Amino acid sequence: MGKKKQNLITETLKVYTDNEMSVYAGYATLYILMAMVPLLTLVIGLVNILPDVSLQHLEAILLEILPGIQELRSLLHNIIANVDRQAGTLAVSVSAIASLWSASNGVNALQMGLCKINGSSGSFIKRRVAALLYTLVFIALIPALLIFRVLRGSIEDLIAAVNRWLNIPDVAGRLLEFMEYSGLITAIVMAVVILLAYTHLQGERQKPRCQLPGTLFTTVLWLVFSRLFEIFIQRFWQASSLYGSLAAIFLAAMWLKAIVMIFFYGAALNEALNRRREAEEREEA
Q1: Among residues 110, 117, 172, 280, which one has the fewest Cβ atoms lying within 10 Å of its Cβ?
Q2: CB of 53 within 8 A of CB of 143?
Q3: In angstroms, how far is CA 79 from the centroid of its own chain?
Q4: Considering the domain boundaries, does residue 274 fall inside one?
Q5: What does the DSSP assignment read for the chain?
């Protein structure tokens, strides 16, 4: 490993520790867990009004993000089933506004950590509006992903028709091959969501280009850690025997805390790179 890379790792760790991001990660984990039910209420309300889209499709997409642990799968299934009984009335009533506000608390908790790293604050109203807008974007992306999955067959037929018309077998073949990997589509959507957070939730709007390193770092490490977490729990730890009926909640909190920490490490990486660029510009001047 080169000296520059070692220095970058050191600088990233320094940004993370100096800003006490572990404390913010715990705070954000708590509020995200509290925001899960109102967030799912809004998403399920939208899913129920979309044609040919079922809650099974929603559950399948969420399971691509979560580790494949039976306790977490059962917890997610039960939450979706229970929320669905009320989502039809909540999502179309005035209480949807309260659900949106509650769901945005999780985003606001992440926003506070990002602002701490970036050193910016902004007004309370501006931050809350940004959190609400980001929550709406996140809610809209999930149904969009569901529609894409449901309409995948029709999209594949359209690609085949265009291929017959324009005679572009290489391009059509690559597109069809890409369509086969639904998990890759989910990963791309995850990266977009993370990039939007780094760009718009740090008090001041950041350049998307400068947020790409942290975005890629967070997305890849999220997927890798979730897989390793799944393997570890399934093979080396009997969580149910230790925590009984609370095992699923404990595992969800433990996994989410690690993901939030990874998210803040990605932001710290972007900040470390930004400080390095500013130092180099001062030296050149």
Answers
A1: 280
A2: yes
A3: 19
A4: no
A5: --HHHHHHHHHHHHHHHHTTHHHHHHHHHHHHHHHHHHHHHHHHHHHHHSTT--HHHHHHHHHHHS---HHHHHHHHHHHHHHHHHHHHHTTSTHHHHHHHHHHHHHHHHHHHHHHHHT----HHHHHHHHHHHHHHHHHHHHHHHHHHHTHHHHHHHHHHHHHHH--HHHHHHHHHHHT-HHHHHHHHHHHHHHHHHHHSSSSPPPHHHHHHHHHHHHHHHHHHHHHHHHHHHHH--HHHHHGGGHHHHHHHHHHHHHHHHHHHHHHHHHHHHHHHHHHHHHH-
- Note whether 77 and 59 are within 8 A (CB): yes
What angle separates helix 70-90 from helix 21-49, to the nearest 10 degrees? 60
Residue 275 lies in a domain: no
pTM of the model: 0.82
Q: What's the pLDDT at 177? A: 62
pLDDT in tens, 17-74: 998 899 999 988 988 888 888 888 778 877 777 777 778 878 888 887 888 788 788 8
On whether residue 231 sits in a domain, the answer given is yes
Nearest to 111 by CA among 253, 206, 219: 206
Average pLDDT, the chain: 79
CA pair distance 192, 199, nearest whole angstrom: 10
Contact 108, 276 (CB under 8 A): no
What's the confidence (pLDDT) of residue 94?
Answer: 53
Residues 6+ apart with CB under 8 A from 100: 38, 42, 132, 135, 136
Count: domains in the chain = 1
Domain around 211 = 17-269
- Contact of 253 with 106, CB cutoff 8 Å: no
